[in-house]
Amino acid sequence: MRYSAAMSATRDSPPSCRIRLLPSAIVDRIAAGEVIERPAAALKELVENALDAGAGRIAVTLTDGGITRIEVTDDGAGMSAAELALAVQRHATSKLADETLVRIATLGFRGEALPSIGAAARLEITSRPAGAAEAQRIRVEGGRVSAVAPAAGPAGTRAVVADLFFATPARRKFLKSPRVEADHAEAAMRRLALAAPEVGFRLEIDGRTLFDLPGQDRAARVAALLGPEAAAALLPVTGERDGMVLTGFAAAPSVHRATGAAQVFVVNRRPVTDPVLKTALRVAYREVIMPGRHPVAALFLDLPAEAVDVNVHPAKTELRFRDAEGVRGLVIGALRTALAGGAGRAAMLAWRPPAPLAPPAPGPRFPGSGFTPAPLPVGAPATPASRGLAEAQLPLAATPAARVLAAAEPTPAHPLGAPVAQVLDTYILAVAADGALVLVDQHAAHERLTHEALRAQHLAGGVRAQPLLLPAVVELAPAEAARLLEHTGELARLGLEIEAFGAGAVLVRALPAALGAPEPAPLLRDLADELGELGETLALEARLEAVLARLACHGSIRAGRRLAAEEMATLLRQMEATPRAATCSHGRPTYLKFSRAEIERLFGRR
After folding, report:
1. Same domain, yes or no, for 188 and 296?
2. What's the per-residue H, E or C state across 509-547?
3. What is the pLDDT of residue 107?
4. pLDDT > 70? residue 327
5. Of 178, 213, 248, which residue is a domain's last?
6. Which of 122, 432, 508, 512 is the Cys-Cys partner for 436 at CB 3.0 to 4.6 Å?
7. How confident is the model at residue 287 (pLDDT cuts 50, 70, 90)?
8. What band does 601 get if pLDDT is binned at 50, 70 and 90?
9. CATH of the domain at 263
10. DSSP string, 358-413
C-alpha cells in the first residue's frame, strides 16, 4: 500500500511524519555530511582536484589537524571567473566526457566536493589559468556563495577551508582530537602521494613538515613513504591477466605491522580501500605471516575504465569490479610469486639493488650431506629437488657435534652464510659474506622445508606414502576418530593411510615418506584438532594446506637436537633455495639477520 498523509494521521504516527521536500540548504548540508565526514575527507577531495588539474607540485598546510584550517596550493591548470562560479555549484563538473558514468578516468568526478565543503565550512578558492592577467577568487560560507572577484595569485589554484562544520555544530562535536584528525589527514596524503609519484608533495601540520617529496619514480616514492625497515625488504610484484596489469611492491614476510595502515591499493591512479584487494593480500600472506599481523604492500592495478565502477561510495574509496574473481586471482598469484624466493633473498630482489659483489665462489660440497649448494637464479621457480629435505634427506643421526665449528668461508652466493656454531641445541649461528650474523631456528626452518616438499609432491599428484612394517593402532576419542575417518580420502592423497579399527580407534597403515618415522598418535590427535577447528565451511584447498602444515611440524627437526656441521650447512643451503623459507608454516620467522651496522649500534659504536 502506498504511504500517504492519511496513514501518517493514525494514532501511532505523529503529524511530523508527513512527507515534505527539504530546503536546498538542508539538502546541501546532508550531502556535505556524506562526502565530508572529517578534515581528511575534505583534504582528499581538494588534492584529487589538484591532481586532475595536472599539478606538478602540491603543498598542504593544516592547523589543528584540519579542523581549524586546510590549505591546498597547486601549480595545475587554473580556472577562469566563469569556471570558478560553476565549480561551487552542485553537480557541475569538468571531469565527465558523457553521461554514461562508466568510463571514469578522473579522481573527483562526482561534482559534489566543493559545494559540499562550502556548505559545511568557510571555503575560499583563488585560481589563475596560465597566461591570464590576474587571478580570480570566490568564497562560500555555510552554503552562501559570494560573487567572483579579481585577486592576486600565481598560476594554479589555492583552496582554503576554515572552521570545518561551523555551519553544522552537531556534526563538529563528532570530530576527534586534532591529533587523531591529523593522523587521518596524514594517512590520506600518503596514499595520494603514493598514487601519483611523479607529483611533488609537501605536507605541513601545525607548523611541522611531515614530508616534502620531489616528483620521483614509483619505487623511490614507495620506499620514502613506507619507512626504512620496509624499504629494505620490498619485493617487486608484477602480474597481468585479461587486460589487467598489477605492479608494485610487497615487503618480505619478516616485515609486518599490527594493523593494515601500511597497505596501499591504487586502482587506475585512485587510492582505494577495496575489500576485494585487502582480502587477496591477506590470503597471499596467510601461509607466511603470523595470525593477527598485517603485511606491508603498495599495489597498483591498472585495468580498462569500463571494467570497474567507482561510483559506489560518496568518498570513492570502494569499487565494484566487473570481474572480481579475476582481480582476486591476479593479486594472489602475483604476490605468491613474489614471496616464493628462498630465505635471505629479499635484499637481492628489493627495489634498490645492493652494491655489486664479487662473483660468487663455487659452493663447497659438504661431506656426507649428498647436497651441493646451487642457489636458484633470481625469479626461477624452484625445482622439486630444491623444494625441501624430502628430496635430499639430511643425515639426522644423533651424532656428537662440537658446539663451535670450523666453518667454511661464507660467499655472497649464500645469503645465510656459513654455520659457525649451534646455540642451545636449537639455533644455528652463521656468518654471512658481508659480516652479518644469522641466527636460524632449526625446527622452524626444517618445518618450512618439509612443508614445501610435501606441497610439491601434492601438486605433482600426491604425497608419497611409506607403508608401516607393522600397522599402528591409535586410540582416540570417538569424536576425534570420526573426524579423521570422514577425511580418509583427503588424508590418503597426503600420504596418510588410515582406517577404522573399532570404536574410538584408528589403524594407521602408512605415513608420508617425507616425515621419516614420527609417532602416529600425537600426529593424528593434532590432525583431528586441526580438522575440528577448520570445519566444513573452509574450502578443500585451505583444509589440505592446513593439514600439510601440521604434517610438516611433526616431521621436522626438533629443538634440542644436536646437528653436525654438514647438517647445518645443508639446512642453510636448502633454506636459500626453498620458497617461503623466511617463515615457518605458522608464520614465525625461521631466521634473524643482524647486519654489521646493527651490531655496532647495539654496542654503541654508532
Report:
1. no
2. EEEEHHHCCCCHHHHHHHHHHHHHHHCCCCCHHHHHHHH
3. 57
4. yes
5. 213
6. 432
7. confident
8. confident
9. 3.30.230.10
10. PPPPPPPPPTTT-----PPPTTPPPPGGGS-TTSS----------SB--PPPP-TT
The helix or strand, by DSSP H or E, that contains position 44, with its residue range, turns out to be helix 39-52
Cα 157 from Cα 126, distance rounded (Å): 6
**What is the dihedral sign for C-alpha 350, 353, 356, 359?**
positive
Q: Kind of pairing, strands 270-272 and 465-475?
A: unpaired
Model pTM above 0.90: no
DSSP state of 20: -
Interval 137-147: pLDDT, tens? 999 998 899 99
Question: 318 or 51, which is more confident?
Answer: 51
Helix (H, G, I), strand (E, B) or coil at 312: coil
Strands 256-257 and 208-213: unpaired
Is the domain of 256 the same as that of 196? no
CA gap 435, 420 in Å, rounded: 13
* Residue ranges making up the domain that contains 258: 218-339
Which of 154, 184, 213 lies at the terminal end of a domain, its last residue? 213
Grid look-up 579542523 returns: 67
Are 202 and 286 contained in the same domain? no
Nearest to 279, CA basis, from 257, 295, 262, 302: 295
SS3 category, 252 = coil
Helix residue ranges, H only, 95-217: 113-120, 169-172, 178-195
For residue 346, tell me if it sits in a domain: no
My answer on whether 464 and 560 are in the same domain is: yes
Q: In the 3-class helix/strand/coil scheme, how is 315-357 assigned residue by residue?
A: CCCCCEECCHHHHHHHHHHHHHHHHCCCCCCHHHHCCCCCCCC
Does 404 map to a domain? yes
Measure the CA–CA gap between 232 and 350, rounded to whole angstroms. 7
Phi-psi region of 151 (alpha: psi -120 to 50; beta: other; left: phi over 0): beta
The whole-number pLDDT of residue 204 equals 97
Q: What local confidence, expressed as pLDDT, does residue 290 receive? A: 80
Whether 153 and 133 have beta carbons less than 8 Å apart is answered as no
Q: At 84, list the grid cell.
A: 570558478
CATH classification of the domain holding 52: 3.30.565.10
57-63 and 200-205 beta bridge pairing: parallel
Once rounded to an integer, what is the mean pLDDT over residues 359-367? 33
490 shares its domain with 414: yes
Q: Are residues 204 and 228 in the same domain?
A: no
Query: Could you tell me if 469 and 530 lie in one domain?
Result: yes
| Number of domains into which the chain is organized | 3
CATH of the domain at 456: 3.30.1370.100
Q: How far from 9 is each of 1, 3, 21, 22, 362, CA to CA, in Å?
A: 15, 11, 18, 20, 92
- Per-residue pLDDT of 191-202, as tens digits, reads 999 999 999 999
Residue 587 is assigned to a structural domain of this protein:
yes
Q: Is 370 part of any domain? A: no
Distance from C-alpha of 373 to C-alpha of 581, rounded to nearest angstrom: 16
DSSP 199: S
